[in-house]
Design a protein that fits this description.
Blueprint (H helix, E strand, L loop, with lengths): L6 E2 H8 L3 H9 L7 E2 L5 E3 L1 H15 L4 H8 L5 H32 L3 H11 L3 H16 L6 H9 L10 H14 L2 H20 L9 H14 L10 H15 L5 H14 L2 H14 L8 H26 L1
Antiparallel strand pairs: 1-3, 2-3
Helix pairs in contact: 3-4, 5-6, 5-9, 6-9, 7-10, 9-14, 11-12, 11-15, 13-15
């Protein structure tokens, strides 16, 4: 068939897969106009109408409204510009749907109450400025007033979440849990105490040269013996406890004595906070960082090893006094 062939509305429907009612609707609105009419007054369409209706159907499936489609098929609007505008609008809708999906998933998995659901939804809806205010308020609560030490600058940077413009569902879930965690006064107080301990250590100890993170140093010392299955109460653990105490004595700038061991135990117990672990797990998801290794097994071992030797020392002191 050539371009001069005319089709009835029924034939046009069969060629395009659209219903007669739909084609008549588009025709009445001038989106596709009949080329001619039969002697009986029935509409007749040429081959151009087929191509035009195919384009109309595609644009409708992509979500464009009829007035915009009319302008596109009439060449009054350039399709690339229209496509760009609609793609941007769809991106916004997708983000909203992702947020809704994340909130509903959290509600279902964590069995949240209506009040908790409302709070979670508000966390998910925060603007970029509101997120930055929340992050800044949290970091100020933890580090404000502890000096301009470069160590704190690095720690603060390593604790800052950066939610992307178009987060994945798991990033949104992690963000909502992160926001809930950092608004907890108890958690803020725990991290503030850790930061103050770090500040005190840096003020008292050797501040020359780079300073290794305390928890990282403990991990490096203890992880091998933990992997080897050495019991923290075993005599084979003695050199590790000595190494821990020596490292901490260097940090604090004081000798390894009973008081130092007591402070070491308190420091280990302070760092051994499951919610601290959870914080860095959530941060890794939000920032697309590698998942951090949990410090809990290493710190549990260290706490028990130091505590056992302190008990032995106390028992030995009592025997000596007796």
């Amino acid at each position: 068939m050539d371009g001069d062939t005319l089709y009835s509305i029924g034939e046009l429907a069969r060629r395009t897969g659209l219903t007669v009612k739909t084609i008549r609707f588009y025709s009445d609105r001038g989106i596709v106009t009949p080329t001619d009419r039969s002697p009986a007054g029935y509409r007749r369409y040429n081959l151009d109408a087929v191509a035009r209706l195919d384009l109309v159907r595609t644009l409708r499936e992509l979500g464009l409204d009829l007035p915009t489609i009319h302008k596109v098929v009439d060449r009054e609007l350039p399709l690339p510009e229209v496509a760009a505008a609609h793609a941007e609008a769809l991106a916004v809708q997708i983000r909203v749907l992702r947020l809704r999906h994340a909130v509903l998933t959290a509600v279902a998995e964590r069995r949240l109450t209506p009040e908790e659901t409302d709070l979670m939804h508000r966390f998910a809806q925060l603007s970029e400025d509101e997120r930055r205010c929340l992050i800044g308020d949290f970091l100020d609560a933890v580090f404000d007033g502890l000096g301009a030490d470069s160590a704190f600058t690095g720690v603060m940077r390593s604790m800052t979440p950066e939610l992307p413009d178009h987060p994945e569902a798991e990033q949104t879930l992690a963000w909502m849990e992160w926001a809930e965690l950092v608004l907890d006064p108890g958690f803020r107080a725990d991290l503030r105490r850790m930061a103050e301990e770090l500040a005190a250590e840096r003020a008292q100890g050797d501040t020359t040269g780079p300073r290794r993170d305390f928890a990282a140093a403990v991990r490096d010392l203890v992880a091998p013996v933990l992997a080897a299955g050495i019991d923290p109460a075993s005599y084979r653990a003695d050199p590790i406890v000595v190494a821990l105490a020596t490292h901490y004595a260097h940090i604090c700038g004081r000798p390894d004595d009973a008081e130092l061991r007591h402070r070491l135990l308190l420091r280990l117990e302070s760092v051994n906070n499951p919610r601290r672990d959870r914080y860095f797990q959530l941060l890794a998801v939000i920032n697309s960082w590698p998942a951090p290794e949990s410090m809990t097994p290493v710190l549990d071992w260290s706490v028990e090893a130091v505590r056992v030797r302190m008990r032995r020392q106390c028992a030995g002191d009592r025997r000596c006094r007796g």
